[in-house]
Design a protein that fits this description.
The complex is a heterodimer of chains A (224) and B (247). Chain A has helices spanning 2-8, 11-51, 55-70, 73-83, 93-119, 122-130, 134-164, 177-188, 192-217. Helix content of chain A is 80%, strand content 0%. Chain A contains nine helices and no strands. Chain A is mostly helical. Chain B is 38% helix and 26% strand. In chain B, the strands form two sheets. In chain B, strands 6-7-8-3-9-10 form a six-stranded mixed β-sheet, with helices on both faces. Chain B has a four-stranded antiparallel β-sheet with strand order 2-1-4-5, with helices on one face. The chains are: A mainly alpha (224), B alpha/beta (247). Chain A binds chain B through residues 121, 123-124, 126-135, 137, 141-142, 145-146, 149, 221-224, and chain B through 53, 55, 75-76, 79-83, 85, 87, 89, 91, 93-97, 106-107, 110-112, 139, 141-142, 152, 155-156, 159. Chain B: It is found in: Cell membrane. Chain B: GO terms for molecular function: ATP binding. Chain B: Belongs to the ABC transporter superfamily. Chain B: Pfam families: ABC_tran.
C-alpha cells in the first residue's frame, strides 16, 4: 500500500509538477474549444449543403465524411507534422492537431446532422414550402432547428471522443496535459505526474459528461 | 359561372415512369366557390390537389391561379405564388419546435416580410377566427388533432391566400373532433374564400359545396352540383362509389 501511494501519489512530485500539468490543461482546453467550434460549424455547413441534393457536391461531401471517419486521426497528424515539411508546408504541432481533429469532428458531425435532417418529416418541408418560405428558408427555420435537436445526444458523445484525442498532441510535441505529464514523469522518475493527468482530464471532462447526460434527457419536445 | 376563375387547371397530366396518375384534368374553380373532390383512394385526387401548388411536379399542363400560370416563372416567382395558395394537410404539419403564435407568424415574417407587430396582430386575428386565440402560447404537442388542424388553417389564412386547398383535412382526426374543423371551413366559405377540398366528408359536401367532382383512375368522371352528384349520379362508376361509401 505504501509503495502504491509512493508511486502514484507522491506529494513532493505532485507539488513540483502540478504547475506544468495545469499549464497543459490550458493548452488542452484551448485546442479542444477551437476544435469543437470549427468542427461543428463545418459539419453543420456540409450537412446543410447536402440537403440541397446536388449530385456532384454530395458525392464530394460523402467522400470527405467517409474518409475522415475511416482514418485514425493519429495517421493524419503524423503525415501533416512530419510529412508536410518535405513539401514546404511547415505547421506548428498545435495547428496540426487543430486541423486534423476539426476535420475529423466535422466529418462525424456532418453525418450526425444529416441523420437529423433525414429524420425531419417530409410534411415539415412541405408545410414550409407551401407557405412560400422557399427551400432555403424552410431549411433554416423549419428543418434545421429540428435536426439540431435530434442530433444533440450523438453529437455530444462525438465531441467528447474527439476532444479526448487532443492527447495525441503528445506525439508531436504539443505540450497539452498528457505531454506535460509524461515529460514530468521522465524527469521525476515517478508515475505521480500521470495521476495528475488523470485528475486534470477528469476536471475537464466530467462536467462535459454530465452536460451530455443532461442534454440527452431534454431532447424531447416541450410536453406537459 | 358568372365569376372569373380563381383557379384553372388545364390539361394537367402527371406520370411516374409508365404509370399515369392524372390524365388530361381540366377544372375551374370560380372566385368564392367551394369545389369538393371525391373518389376512391388512388384515384389521383390528392395528387391533383398537390399539383395546384407544385408540391407535386406536374408532367404537363397548366395551373393558373388568379390569372398567373404557376407552371411558368422562376423558383422565386413560384414561392411568391405559393403565398397566395393556402394549403391544409391531412397530417397538419405544424412546426413542433415553435408555439402556436410562431407557427402562424413564421411565413408572414420570413416570406411576406411583415413586421413582428403586424404579423402578431394578423396571427391573433386568425387564431380568433378558428377559436384558438387562447392557445397562442401552447406548443403543437399540447393540442388535440382538431386544434392542430385549426392552427394549420390559421397559418395558411394569415398569408391572405386567394384560394385554399384542403387535402383530406379531417381524415386523421378522431370523429368527435371533425366537426370543429368543418365548422371553421364552413365559416371560411361563408366569408367568400375560394376553396378546393379533397375529402370523404360527404355530408359536409352535400351541405356546403357549390360543385362536386368525382375522380377515378386519374380522370374526372363526373362533376355537378351536390344534388346532381349525390341525388342522380350519371356515371356507373360514381354510383358504385357512392353506394360503397354510403353503405
Amino acid at each position: 500500500m505504501e509503495r502504491f501511494l509512493e508511486t502514484f501519489f507522491n506529494p513532493v512530485v505532485m507539488a513540483k509538477y502540478a504547475p506544468d500539468v495545469i499549464a497543459g490543461m490550458g493548452v488542452t482546453l484551448a485546442i479542444a474549444a477551437a476544435v469543437i467550434v470549427a468542427g461543428i460549424a463545418l459539419g453543420l455547413a456540409l450537412a446543410c449543403l447536402r440537403a440541397y441534393r446536388r449530385k456532384v457536391l454530395n458525392f464530394f461531401i460523402i467522400c470527405y465524411a467517409d474518409i475522415f471517419r475511416a482514418l485514425p486521426p493519429l495517421v493524419l497528424i503524423l503525415i501533416l507534422y512530419f510529412g508536410f515539411p518535405s513539401i514546404g508546408i511547415r505547421l506548428s504541432g498545435a495547428m496540426v492537431l487543430f486541423i486534423v481533429l476539426s476535420l475529423t469532428l466535422a466529418a462525424f458531425a456532418e453525418e450526425i446532422f444529416w441523420a437529423g435532417f433525414s429524420a425531419v418529416e417530409k410534411g415539415q418541408w412541405e408545410a414550409g414550402i407551401a407557405t412560400g418560405l422557399g427551400f432555403t428558408r424552410t431549411l433554416a427555420f423549419v428543418a434545421l432547428p429540428q435536426a439540431v435537436r435530434l442530433a444533440m445526444p450523438p453529437l455530444v458523445n462525438r465531441v467528447l471522443a474527439i476532444t479526448k484525442m487532443t492527447a495525441l498532441g503528445s506525439a508531436i510535441g504539443v505540450v497539452e496535459i498528457l505531454s506535460a505529464s509524461t515529460t514530468a514523469q521522465s524527469f521525476s522518475g515517478s508515475a505521480t505526474p500521470l495521476t495528475l493527468s488523470v485528475i486534470a482530464y477528469l476536471v475537464i471532462f466530467m462536467p462535459m459528461v454530465v452536460l451530455a447526460r443532461w442534454l440527452e434527457n431534454r431532447t424531447a419536445w416541450k410536453k406537459r | 359561372m358568372a365569376k372569373r376563375p380563381m383557379l384553372e387547371i388545364a390539361a394537367l397530366e402527371k406520370r411516374f415512369g409508365d404509370n399515369t396518375i392524372l390524365k388530361q384534368i381540366d377544372l375551374k374553380v370560380a372566385e368564392g366557390e367551394l369545389v369538393f373532390v371525391i373518389g376512391p383512394s388512388g384515384s389521383g385526387k390528392s395528387t391533383m390537389l398537390r399539383c395546384c401548388n407544385r408540391l407535386e411536379q406536374p408532367t404537363s399542363g397548366d395551373i393558373i391561379v388568379d390569372g398567373r400560370n404557376i407552371m411558368a416563372g422562376t423558383s422565386r416567382d413560384l414561392a411568391q405564388m405559393r403565398l397566395q395558395i393556402g394549403m391544409v394537410f391531412q397530417g397538419f404539419h405544424l412546426y413542433p419546435h415553435m408555439n402556436v403564435l410562431k407557427n402562424v407568424t413564421l411565413a408572414q415574417r420570413k416570406a411576406l416580410k411583415r413586421s413582428k407587430a403586424e404579423a402578431d396582430v394578423r396571427a391573433m386575428d386568425m387564431l380568433e377566427r378558428v377559436g384558438l386565440a387562447h392557445k397562442a402560447d401552447a406548443y403543437p404537442s399540447e393540442l388535440s388533432g382538431g386544434q392542430q388542424q385549426r392552427v394549420a388553417i390559421a397559418r395558411a389564412l394569415a398569408l391572405d391566400p386567394k384560394i385554399m386547398l384542403f387535402d383530406e383535412p379531417t381524415s386523421a382526426l378522431d370523429p368527435e373532433l371533425v366537426g370543429s374543423v368543418l365548422k371553421v371551413m364552413k365559416d371560411l366559405k361563408s366569408k367568400g374564400m375560394t376553396m378546393l377540398v379533397v375529402s370523404h366528408e360527404m355530408g359536409f359536401a352535400r351541405e356546403t359545396a357549390d360543385r362536386v367532382v368525382f375522380m377515378d383512375g386519374g380522370v374526372i368522371v363526373e362533376e355537378g352540383t351536390p344534388d346532381e352528384i349525390f341525388g342522380a349520379p350519371k356515371a356507373e362508376r360514381t354510383r358504385a362509389f357512392l353506394s360503397r361509401v354510403a353503405g
